[in-house]
Amino acid sequence: MSAFVFALVCVIILLIMPKEGDKLHQLIAAVFRDYFVYAPVKRAGRLLTQEAKTPDEVDWSGKLAENSWKEPFLPHREKLFESRRGLLETKGEQPPVACLGMNILDLKALTLFDLVFGNDVYYQNRRQKILVIGYGADWPNSYKKSKVFSHNFKEDALEHVSFDIFIAGRKSGEPVFYSGSAAGRKLLESCRIKNFENIKFAGAVAESGPDKRMLEIKGKLERSADHYLWNNLDQICLACGKCTIACPTCFCFDLEDKVNPDDPRRDRKWGSCFYNDFSLVAGGHKELDTVKKKIFFWYYHKFARIPKEYSYVGCVSCGRCTRTCPVNIDIAKNIAKILKMK
Amino acid sequence: MNNIYQPQKARVISASRESIDTVLLRFQFADKTLQKKFAYLSGQFMQIGFPGWGECPISICSSPSDSQKYFELAIRDVGQLTHKINELKSGDEAWVRGPFGNGFDTDLYAGKELILIGGGCGFVPLRPIIMDALAGRIKTKSLKIFYGCFNEDTLLFKKQYPEWNRGAELGIILEKPTANWRGEKGLITALIQKRRISPAATVVMVGPPVMYRFAIKELEAKKIKPQNIWLSLERRMYCGVGICQHCAIGPYYVCKDGPVFNYAQLKNISHAI
Fold first, then answer.
1. Which residues of B are less than 8 Å from A225 in CB distance?
2. Is ipTM > 0.90 here?
3. pTM (2 d.p.)
4. What string of DSSP letters covers B47-103?
5. CATH superfamily of B8-100
6. Least CA distance to B49: which residue of chain A?
7. Tell me: domain B106-232, CATH 3.40.50.80, correct?
8. Is residue A15 scored above 50 in pLDDT?
């Protein structure tokens, strides 16, 4: 009898004990309660990274949204100084923001931003208040299967990207949780999620050294100025700059003064190396005066200059530029052409 | 964390018209402790501007030995912002950040025949080298200054020519001088062709890209090695610290890795000069 009661109690406990999936709901509810949330949201048939009002809106398909996650980290326009009397640094008070559902490729782009803007007081003030929750549907199989052309897949990928919590979805069964920071750990524990793995950030670059594939592309691209590819692209590319807006790693910016009497200010705004005034100097000289020079500049930045400067990828292979290009310029195919160089 | 975009207020302590389109301004930081701590190298530049007007990069043209007292900028009126700067009078204020860039490595000139080649307003950053060489702060074997300019009205630093002529070989060539001009007429390349330059000389050159392309040919004809040619580049720039990408050339940033480059560094980079 007592054995029966014990078994019954055990079954009841198992039934009422929250499963990891339920815990995921708890976690998401906590995030929506305490943070202003950016997430992949499908609206009017388009999957975009945008403000999510409720947990139901979040898309968990694991597909990459059309746009990147740049906006919460590096807004397309931000006020650096109030310029009514001199130039007073803007001390923006922003609500706590959570970026929920960042793909591993987007986490790589974020990790690059953390390197590039390491000494930027505006970026750092904002960054410290952003909770980053990564997500991989069917992780890590989804990553292994995706067409990553700019670098190799490493099993320890999570050790080399910035995040607070990473949720690894499983095709069957419960999700697996990882914490990547003290803040992430605290939040998981507050949601009574005990079964998670702590990932210690081991630096953006693996201990074994910079990515071999990245270095191979870099070496060839540096020597490719006379490659026929650039002449071909010169004929096709419209220099519209849509790729630079869609790209999660494009971070070029302009400083711009506004003399609006109600709010005189010095802003930082996204720039684009495809725009005509990007290299224009007083007197009218323009270094990037052909489409060929512009598109080479863009590729060179991603595949040569960033790898040289940070030993880190300047392209994360998300393919957003290819998806958004009005004339179907395919970055993966172009890099394949560069790799065929001897 | 220090704000890399925060400019500081600086006051004009003297303003003089250097040429028909260029003003020479001597600045002091409004904050005296900043001025006392201020240090720069020849060839470095400042970002100067005003609230509502943006900023532009301008080479410092005073000697680094005066850095704790003041700094000077010679600014040509070529756009809206530089026009406003040209109207500054003694006592007026501007906002500056800097110094930025690598500057000239003047230690390399010690014991060398030093050739300075300036074209147009590119002559500006060469002035501190001339001043330091003539004052013995840079111990060159000899100094030759070749300066190509449009006409008499656009010549810079005229008051200093007698002194420079005493301590160095100063060659000036004008592209379109008036009938009264008794000096040389033509382009800077003609001057380089005519003058004696030893193959072992060190050359420092500042001017527009077109000048570099032709002047380098002349220097190569005189057997000067690429690694002995130094030049300073001009690019659009915003941040000044190698982030915003506007001034990138190949693997380098003009604002951070430059503006001074060795010609050997640049010769294989497409569109660098």
1. 270
2. yes
3. 0.93
4. EEEETTTEEEEEEB-S-GGGTTT-EEEEEE--SHHHHHHHT--TT-EEEEEEEES--
5. Translation factors (2.40.30.10)
6. A257
7. yes
8. no
